TrEMBL record:
It comes from the Bacteria. This is Lipoprotein.
């Protein structure tokens, strides 16, 4: 009322104030409009994937080696930004620090092992300059056991101090770390959950091995076990949650396989932007046998990416000879993950 009375007594002042208020209101409106535009632009930028989809498609097509059956490349959602595949090829050394018999990781001294791993990475980089070869340490963090153990699960969880050691070994060479689980009579969900604090680290990924998953009461090692799509999806769901909650780049999940029965219902395996699934041909033997296994169980049942395991001893026995990078690059599809045991 006081301002209204003054306006009646002093019209010129009212006009001046009104004019100023209109000017101020106009300025505020412009600022709001600018803010709204910025906000809309920000939303648009967040909604659009930042990967180069044309480049991604080209790389996936190259991995398929011009497959004409329509199986490869597999149609999946585009990955989150920062995905390792198909931009890199992972070269991994596999094993356990308690055993000299489970793989090259743990079989020979650390310095010698690291040097040998770097040599294998260099060979793959020379064989395919279009894809960066990167090192990885693939550590068996849960091992299947013949004895039932205190909880009757026929598996042993390695102490976290061993995982910490592998992480320290990986750091100087900028290597990835894979934690591998052999569930025995336990479950994928139970064992992967125990490792979430490590999987929450940017450079730590996961491997799961159906060979040692015995659901029917058999002792691990006496029969070849299996995973259903639900088992594998449990791992995928946990990894996807870890990625979302920690704002990480996609995790790689390696699933070992060398028989038909080791993985069932492969078409039901989830395909998410947060997780990249590698089906790894895990058998040893002659070249003919290994190629046949890759064709039968990996090529013909496509999931997303493929891997190939090489055994320094078992693939070089009885006049057998281990595949070279140049030879494996002729496979359809080209493997994105190479594991040495």
């Amino acid at each position: 009322m006081k301002n209204y009375a003054l306006a009646l007594l002093i019209p010129s002042l009212f006009i001046f104030v009104s004019s100023c208020n209109k000017s101020k209101a106009a300025e505020e409106k412009n600022e709001l409009e600018k803010t709204a535009v910025v906000a809309v632009d920000s939303v648009k930028k967040k909604a659009v994937t930042t990967i180069d989809t044309a480049d991604y498609n080209r790389r996936m097509l190259a991995l398929s080696n011009n497959d004409t059956t329509g199986r490869w490349p597999v149609k999946t959602p585009y990955p989150l930004p920062g995905a390792l595949l198909p931009y890199n090829r992972i070269i991994a050394f596999y094993g356990n620090l308690y055993s000299t018999r489970m793989g090259i990781l743990g079989e020979i001294p650390r310095a010698q092992m690291i040097k040998q791993l770097q040599g294998e990475v260099a060979k793959w980089q020379a064989a395919d300059s279009s894809t960066k070869a990167i090192p990885a340490l693939h550590y068996i963090a849960v091992t299947a056991q013949g004895a039932p153990g205190k909880d009757n699960m026929h598996r042993m969880r390695m102490p976290f101090k061993q995982i910490d050691t592998v992480l320290k070994w990986a750091k100087p060479i900028d290597a990835l770390v894979f934690l591998d689980i052999q569930v025995g009579h336990s479950t994928v969900k139970a064992e992967v959950t125990e490792l979430v604090k490590y999987l929450s680290l940017p450079n730590v990924h996961l491997g799961i091995d159906p060979e040692f998953s015995l659901k029917n009461g058999h002792v691990p090692g006496t029969k070849i076990g299996s995973f259903t799509a639900d088992d594998i999806n449990d791992a995928i769901d946990i990894l996807a949650k870890v990625v979302r909650e920690n704002k990480l780049t996609p995790k790689v999940l390696v699933v070992h396989r060398f028989t038909q029965g080791m993985v069932t219902d492969y078409k039901r395996i989830k395909k998410l932007p947060e997780v990249q699934v590698v089906m790894d041909m895990d058998g040893f033997g002659s070249r003919v046998l290994k190629r046949s296994t890759y064709l039968t169980y990996i090529y013909r049942e496509p999931v997303q990416f493929t891997g190939f395991k090489l055994f320094y001893k078992n693939d070089n026995w009885n006049n057998w000879k281990m595949y070279t990078p140049e030879e494996l690059l002729k496979f359809t599809p080209k493997p994105s993950y190479i594991q040495f045991q």
